[in-house]
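U., I forgot to send this yesterday:
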Amino acid sequence: MHQGVMKAWLESSHLNGANSTYVEQMYEAYQEDPQSIPEDWQTVFDNLPYVNGSSVEVPEAVHSKVRDYFRSLALEGHHKSSARMSDPDVDAKQVKVLQLINAYRFRGHQSANLDPLGLWDREKVSELDPSFHGLGSDDMQREFNTGSFAHGGDTLKLIDLVNALKSTYGGSIGAEYMHITDTDEKRWIQQRLEPSLGRGQYSTEDKKRVLESLNAAEGLEKYLGAKFPGAKRFSLEGGDALVPMMREIIYRAGDAGTKEVVIGMAHRGRLNVLVNVLGKNPSELFDEFAGKHSDHNNGSGDVKYHQGFSSDFETPGGNVHLVLAFNPSHLEIVNPVVIGSVRARLDRRGCDTGLQVLPITIHGDSAITGQGIVQETFNMSQTRGFKVGGSIRIVVNNQVGFTTSNREDVRSTEYCTDIAKMVQAPIFHVNADDPEAVAFISQLAVDYRNEFKRDVVIDLVCYRRHGHNEADEPSATQPLMYAKIKKHPTPRKIYAERLIAEQTLASDDVTAMVNHYRDALDEGNCVVKERRTTTQHSGDWAPYIGAEWHDAYPGEMSMERLKRLAGKISYVPEAHKLQSRVEKIYKDRLLMAQGEKLLDWGFAETLAYASIVEDKKRIRITGQDSGRGTFFHRHAVLHNQNDATAYLPLRNISDDQGPIDITDSVLSEASVLAFEYGYATAEPSGLTLWEAQFGDFANCAQVVIDQFLSSGEQKWGRLCGLTMLLPHGYEGQGPEHSSARLERFLQLCANHNMQVCVPSTPAQVYHMLRRQVVRPMRRPLVVMSPKSLLRHPLAVSSLEELAHGTFQNVIGEIDSLDASKVDRVVFCSGKVYFELLEKRRKNNIDNVALIRVEQLYPFPREEALAALADYAHVSDFVWCQEEPQNQGAWYCSQHHFRGVIPTGAGLSYAGREASAAPACGYPTLHAEQQESLINSALKL
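Result:
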């Protein structure tokens, strides 16, 4: 705004020299929150001119300069418009009114009626008192401009404004959203909260639907409590409003066009959600309580409050497919699993807005703050490779973390939801005893998520009527709380009496609804009237069910096709300038494609990907350096050195190829691996890979490995073909950069639950990756991938080995030894093989044979016997490893080796001594240990 225009505006307004104080106060309010003042004033301040030619605009300049600027304009206006002077006191109080509005928007939630038990001892917020702003009783009947407060027109009497603010921000809903920096988001929330005073308008049918949900929530818990007294069920009682909340979210999402909803939650209320939201038959649940589903021939099974479920739910906008994810007792780890599953479903649908698939994660009040995986999942919520268009996060806040009720024992923040502020998610606290407020916020949350594609948090403030489980006695540790709970009416009773009082329903109708639900439970049939016949939504798993390890992998590929693919992955547009080292790699790849140079690891790996996407299969690779590869070998994403644009040869294989995403992930292991597990469980046909920066870093994701990858099929019947690439090998880089802890994976191996491979050549990695997709078996693949072998002169392969070979679980002796002279056979895996081979050749040793075991689990017994066929006369067998004796494969696999060597033969160990640390940190000591174990294996 030019200075002349501003002068004219001031002269035409009621402002003049006498009101310069008003202008200053208005500007102060603008600095605190631009939305707290009328839009015309926002325009004035937004368009302030530069001060003294400075490049810093006035809103960011010293306040005195702004004051002086306005005073000069106002003084000029004083001489021209003194007849239009208004009351300076009124104008000053107008600013205070706007500051009062702003105070409620910022801190009104601290005065809201959120605790159903009334036990919260909250300090009074002085800024919410009109007197704090100099507004007294004599001002209450005055009319003031309400600025952007969206209720009752441009002006209101102060008394009416205060009542409106209290109703909107101090009722059953406490809205925290002023921490959001985006003005449009804050304004959108205000436009939803303030016109309605934070309340929804519901028809009789709407209210009846909410009461039915509360009847169901309470009815199931009472029924289970009577039928199975003392049995663990992690009751929802006290947080009953979760059921109407979930149902309203699903209805709203369906209306907006959502096709799938994926839910992750821990134990509390899970059985209730299964029966009353997803529509699991009560009779099935009762059988589980009675122990009738014990089937030792069908996996280990899991407790009923870990089980998942899926169904279709009818809404006015169409059927919505509901999925409740299986989860272990590690409460919050299911969150990134859910988000990963949602991303896979969105990718399959080609939906990049997130609208068609909605994630809902349900948290406990202590778990959401106490477990770091929540922060990790929030952090990835807006990143390119992991965003899903926002999620709805519900906290069932029963105010007791486990057996602790004091806030200072479980967190360091006022609210358990404060962690969500890191991503500027709006947070809506709501009193669970006010189901209409719950319904209102549920609908608002869905709309916000769909509008802004961001996370939104609902803090359902409730209580826990019983102990942590039904055998627990909570009054031992929370006597005052549970004395109050025993006297407190249930949410259903409170709402039923409210509807009776307002004559929405008659008392007899309420009783009939309760009896009707009880009768339905007695019949054991589905109690969710919206449930419909389930159709396939999560990918077609039929081709993979029942597949096993022995299913054929047709590794053969025509040389013509292989060379064509090799040319595709080696081509870079001329205008795409590469970094010099990368350019050298691609020049070498051209020679490899033309058959003039043997293939290295990166080229063979990339060829495998090219063949998979040409077969129209999807590939997803994530890791902290996946685009280039941690050890500078992959270079699947090429960065133009002139303009930083990216080119992916693998996206230019053919016009109708499968999609490929290669993402440099956030610096997290647990959340990313859990995300990829979730993705792989919802995308069976393609190849999903997670690459650790160093294999050692899988430590940080151990819970995902233990409780999902290794045991998910056994516990829940969940197949998953996720591949983990874990760089592993002893190169003198110390304890945290050597070992992927091979022994941990082998210890978890049983029931053919996963594959553990240590490929040693480019041809092996090519066939191993292709086999994971082409073969119908879908189980996790754990790869001890190399570091130094990526560029080792002996770790090379030919195009013929790719075209006409296959994955070899065991690789026998490759040199032309006279088998009759061999008196020792050394088993080994990985990098140590090449050190053994080089040392044997250097010393002209011809009596020691080397056998590589490339797949340690499931142990390839038949292939091992075939490799040993020429050594039936040998009685001296050795297992050689780089890892300390208590680590690596020795303890977990020696029984397999003993099972294939000749009867009466001995098996000994060659490797490092047992150690508490995975590797030593001194290069000289490493070299000494390495030479010693090689010499020991070769009898030197």
